């Protein structure tokens, strides 16, 4: 690499780090001001509060890194353009594509670091972040999926239930169907299910129908305590469960949830692909930022930042809307995750081509 490459790469990395170091304390202060009353009311220990904000720093940096990277590139590239440094580079015989090379190196470095963080470091931080959040700041019930659940719990048995409540470990309208091959052997129904011990459940208005060759047998009782082959927590994984698992743990978790017929499967698949799409967005946003800010404008850095912010929020808007649609419908979660990168990759190509002229 030449002096020119090192110069751009150094500005790329240092400006990005500067923005992260600038915004993280601001985020911590805002979050603390909003939640300090809840912390005092719930008597959160000081050492756990400090630990929470350590995890919050990692969570917050990971959340904002694409936007901070984008704005940092616009900032220092606009300064280069306003100081006519870019004109000097290009006038010396350096092509615009050659000018982009150190930006490409910078994006690759950031992308690799972001991938390593998203695969292993961020999930570990999320464990502490979410545990504190729902222990002291919000109700733990907000983390549950209380919609109808239809799950295959093993090779032979399927269950259905509604209105899960972890606070008292209960569910309504419980049904368990036991199969042998493709044939139904027996079916258990109860109006209410309640955990009373380790895999021991109390079933209210219990009915068991045994399928026989000639005439079915029906057993019923007001309440029945029985052993069932599943853990209550397996039926209602936390909505943030995927955020706390490393990449390979998440792959295994998704396969397990797919086998069980989880209604939150799209949410977990989105979380999996985000581990790749967010770091890779560094390349897309880098090229857009350079194309937007490498031209000297009358409005200076301010105009470039305004254009950049508009593009950044358009990116976020498309990404969040599609992710929400995929979670709440049968829309492909893979398409939802990657569409924003694909759309803005096309935008980046067009802007770079225009800037080259």
Task: Give a quick precis of the structure.
This protein has 2 domains: 3-139 and 263-356, no CATH class; 149-235, no CATH class.
Structure explained in plain terms:
Helices cover 63% and strands 17% of the residues. It has 357 residues and is α+β, with helices and mostly antiparallel strands. The two termini are 25 Å apart. The longest helix has 39 residues, at 3-41. The mean pLDDT is 85. The chain has two domains: 3-139 and 263-356, no CATH class; 149-235, no CATH class.
Helix content: 55-70%
Mean pLDDT: 85
Major sheet summary line: 6 strands, antiparallel
Shape: elongated
Structural class: alpha+beta
- Contiguous runs where pLDDT drops below 50 for at least 5 residues: none
Number of strands: 6
Estimate nothing, just give the exact number of structural domains.
2
Q: DSSP helix count?
A: 10
**End-to-end gap:** 25 Å
Radius of gyration: 27 Å
Q: How much of the polypeptide forms β-strand, as a percent range?
A: 15-25%
Strand order, largest beta sheet: 1-2-3-4-5-6
Give the key terms.
357 residues; alpha+beta; 10 helices
SSE order and pairing:
Layout: H1 3-41, H2 46-82, H3 85-91, H4 96-99, H5 101-137, E1 149-152, E2 157-165, E3 170-180, E4 183-197, E5 200-210, E6 217-227, H6 232-235, H7 247-260, H8 265-293, H9 300-328, H10 333-356
Helix pairs in contact: 1-2, 1-5, 2-5, 2-8, 2-9, 5-8, 7-8, 8-9, 8-10, 9-10
């Amino acid at each position: 690499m030449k002096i020119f490459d090192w110069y751009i790469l150094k500005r790329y990395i240092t400006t990005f780090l500067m923005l992260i170091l600038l915004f993280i304390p601001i985020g911590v202060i805002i979050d603390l001001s909003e939640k300090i009353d809840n912390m005092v009311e719930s008597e959160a220990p000081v050492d756990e509060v400090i630990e929470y904000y350590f995890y919050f720093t990692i969570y917050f940096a990971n959340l904002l890194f694409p936007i901070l990277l984008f704005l940092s590139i616009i900032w220092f590239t606009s300064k280069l353009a306003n100081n006519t440094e870019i004109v000097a580079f290009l006038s010396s015989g350096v092509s615009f594509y050659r000018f982009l090379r150190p930006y490409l190196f910078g994006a690759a470095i950031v992308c690799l670091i972001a991938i390593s963080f998203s695969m292993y470091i961020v999930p570990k931080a999320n464990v502490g972040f979410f545990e504190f959040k729902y222990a002291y700041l919000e109700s733990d019930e907000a983390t549950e999926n209380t919609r109808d659940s239809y799950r295959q719990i093993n090779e032979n048995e399927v269950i259905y239930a509604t209105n899960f409540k972890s606070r008292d470990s209960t569910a309504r309208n419980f049904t368990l169907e036991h199969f042998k091959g493709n044939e139904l052997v027996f079916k258990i129904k109860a109006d209410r299910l309640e955990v009373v011990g380790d895999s021991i459940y109390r079933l209210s208005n219990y009915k068991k129908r045994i399928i026989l060759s000639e005439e079915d047998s029906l057993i019923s009782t007001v309440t029945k305590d029985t052993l069932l082959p599943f853990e209550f927590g397996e039926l209602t994984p936390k909505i943030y469960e995927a955020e706390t698992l490393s990449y390979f743990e998440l792959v295994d978790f998704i396969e397990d949830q797919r086998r069980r017929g989880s209604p939150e499967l799209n949410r977990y698949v989105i979380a999996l692909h985000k581990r790749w799409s967010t770091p890779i967005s560094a390349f897309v946003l880098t090229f857009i930022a350079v194309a937007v800010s490498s031209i000297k404008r009358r409005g200076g850095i301010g105009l470039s930042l305004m254009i950049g912010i508009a593009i950044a929020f358009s990116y976020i808007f498309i990404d969040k809307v599609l992710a929400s649609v995929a979670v709440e419908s049968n829309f492909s979660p893979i398409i939802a995750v990657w569409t924003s990168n694909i759309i803005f990759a096309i935008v980046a190509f067009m802007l770079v081509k225009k800037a080259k002229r």
